[in-house]
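FW: tagging you since you asked about this chain on Friday. Here's the raw sequence from the shared folder, copied in full. Didn't touch anything.
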Amino acid sequence: MHQISEIKFRQFIVMVFSKKSFLYSIVALIAFLPSVLLANSPEQASGQGEAVAKENQDPKAEIKEQIDEVKNHHVLDAHSFTFFGDKETGKEYGFPLPIILWDGGLHVFSSSKFDDGKAAEDGGNYYVLHHEKIYKTDASGTLAGDEHHPDNAKPLDFSITKGVFTMLLIALLMFLLFRSLGNSYSKNGGVAAGAGRFFEPIVLFVRDEIAIPNIGERHYKKYMSHLLTVFFFIWFLNVVGMTPFGINVTGNISVTFGLAVITFIITTFTAKKDYWLHMIWMPGVPVPMKIILAPIELIGAIIKPFSLMIRLYANMFAGHLVLMSLIGMMFVFKSWIGSPLTFGLSFIISLIEILVTLLQAYIFTMLTALYFGAAVEEHHHGDEHH
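HL: got it, structure written out here
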């Protein structure tokens, strides 16, 4: 079966990479889209569609403020899904998302109630959306205290934000995709069909190059479902993040924290006795050193998933900021030399980011497999006393 898969894999590679012009066109289009669509909106992303600043204000300073607004709107989460906006009217085109609040009871309504900066009313309570945070207020919608840190109370927010909506969409896509892949095996006698022909080699790669070498032939199967889910989930989210719609799910530390916690829980509850023995009371080590090393090893067990969280978050968040900053520099220079140079550089960075989307999924999955492998590793204590 493994030989058949390898033959199919080689045939697949020949088939796909023989169409070089098609591949190059797709890569160029994906890399080009953020530059083109985002280049239209240094003003619209301010969210208010205001006209040019006051006459006595430095135009360059105003442009820089608008670029900062664009970057913030692109990398941060939102309570509505916006595709694009009209920079002249300030109108945004998209669709609202459900707002779910707990404030002495459950409050569910549409985010469209926040349009035009109005206070949303539900069950006699009034709420206002300010910098993508929901505050309790009165009918006038006024906020007390500092503009960036109002003193108004904040209800518990369980809303379906743009990031949550994207994750649900990707989860549904993965379910349908791999369910069809599984069905194609049963219908075609173990042969993948349709989109499964593209994803089968990737599944085999995760199994043969990540799971088995790091976990071992004996234990890898019980972790494969998690490793495949993590790999494709992160990869698909990273790819969606390359679109100009301001989707930055893996650049949200809450999401990477959740993924890291799941890895930590699985590692902790599936670890063998030897894993804890070598962490808390290492065989063959003098007792004074055991007392010193035990807390260090315990801290290390927590730092490992923490490093997973920070690595994915920092790389994706920084990549978005760098790309947005380069695109914004075109409007700062406004010259026939500076603007084309920064456009070309942003295009190259976009191509690199396409590779990074896959690389970060691979690194996260590889490190997760390493942690699982350490948890189920079998030690031979008899050899340590010689």
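FW: Residues 45 and 70 are 5 Å apart (CA to CA).
HL: agreed, and Residues 287-333 form the longest helix (47 residues).
FW: great, closing this out.
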